[in-house]
Amino acid sequence: MPELISLDAHAHIDPTHTSTDLAQAGAVLAMTLSLDEAAKVVGREDPFIAWGVGCHPRKVAAQQIFDPDRFFELALRSPVIGEVGLDVAYHVPLERQLFTLRVALSFATKNPRILSLHSFNSAALMLEELRRTPVIAPILHWWTGSAAETRQAVDLGCYFSVHSAVARRSIFRTQVPLDRLLMESDHGWADPPGAIPHRVIWVEYLLSASLGMDVRQVRQLVWRNFSDVVRLTGTRGTLPFSLASLLL
């Protein structure tokens, strides 16, 4: 097996970066914060970067002007939907967040995509929406649910992308099956892309210690799990060729 590069299931990248800038970023699912941002990146051909179509639940202006028709048009041209979701700690009205999320989930029921869902402090609400509109292999980002809520999420077919701020939580060792784990940096929009692999490696080490696995095994595990998400959603043909060629 060739040496696997780092795999980041959730990061934010300034779309003004060139493919040369992104060459050291590893394999990344790059989430957008608004439809305006998504419109700048959909259709880009970066070898290991899969760009998403999103509308962040914390972004007031993006939520206010969210247009379902525009979302559908962009999402049809992308392998990834993200970042969308719920965040009750922020001042975007919940009704607005729910409207946007429901549009995205409705789209994904008919057009399966790699779907990254923001669920910070909103576990019960997110589970309710996923029961209301079941989708294939949703990936929960910033998961803060209880043990019982985590078991419910597993039963709903969810995957979990883990970053350094939550990697030490025992919930990911005791309640989440190994075949549902992914890793992420939650890399900031303004940060240098070359820092992404280092942040992912830090999560690899944290999970290695928590799970009692070799770091190399952790990387192979998340690539295998990501391959399963791609297979389940039928999105391999929509990924950049170089990224798709690494699937296990």
Structure description:
It is a single chain. With 248 residues, the chain is α/β, with parallel strands linked by helices. It has one domain (15-244): TIM Barrel. Helix content is 40%, strand content 14%. The chain is built from ten helices and eight strands. The chain has an eight-stranded parallel beta sheet with strand order 1-2-3-4-5-6-7-8, with helices on both faces. β5, α5 and β6 form a beta-alpha-beta unit. α3 (68-75) runs parallel beside α4. The radius of gyration is 16 Å and the shape is globular. The model has no long low-confidence stretch (mean pLDDT 94).
Largest sheet, if any?
8 strands, parallel
Fraction of residues in helices?
25-40%
The overall strand count is 8
Proportion of beta-strand residues? 5-15%
Give the averaged pLDDT, no decimals.
94
Tell me the CATH superfamily.
Metal-dependent hydrolases
Secondary structural class: alpha/beta
Number of H- or I-type helical stretches:
10
Domains (count): 1
Q: What's the alpha carbon Rg, rounded to whole Å?
A: 16 Å
Low-confidence stretches: none
Q: In sequence order, what are the helices and strands, one letter per element?
A: EEHEHHEHEHEHEHEHHH
Distance between the ends: 9 Å
Overall CATH architecture: Alpha-Beta Barrel
Based on CA inertia axes, which overall geometry fits? Answer: globular
CATH class: Alpha Beta
Strand arrangement in the largest pleated sheet: 1-2-3-4-5-6-7-8
The CATH topology comes to TIM Barrel
